[in-house]
Amino acid sequence: MFSALRPSQPLFGGLLWKIPWRMSAPQKYRQRKRLQRVDRLVETLSNALEKQGGSTIAAIERWKAEMPTEAEMEAKDKYTLFDRKARGYRKGVHKVPKWTRVSQRVNPPGY
Questions:
Q1: pLDDT digit string (tens) for 3-12?
Q2: 3-state secondary structure of 82
Q3: What are phi and psi of 80, to 5 degrees?
Q4: 3-state secondary structure of 93
Q5: pLDDT in tens, 28-71
Q6: Fewer CB within 10 Å, N side or C side of the chain?
Q7: Exposed (0-12), middle (13-18) or buried (19+): which is 63, by Cβ within 10 Å?
């Protein structure tokens, strides 16, 4: 028990790669910039299609109708998302697999 060769902390059990329970300030900054880049891309595509003769793509129109822009989103929607298994029904967006590549802008009403 108190020998010189006792196991290190990671060997006692648990995950070696732990995810902090909240996002750091740089992670939040990068998340905001990511949302802004997507908004700019959608706007650019929409403008380019209108210049080519007023044509539109259904996916872009649906995105503009359903998804809020980064400026319209509340802070809790930018950094957390609905999870029915979590206490308080919210969890940090950084705990979702592939959270930098998947858009989670819309949550159920009331959460």
A1: 666 666 655 5
A2: strand
A3: -135, 165
A4: helix
A5: 999 999 999 999 999 999 999 999 988 889 999 999 999 999 99
A6: N
A7: middle
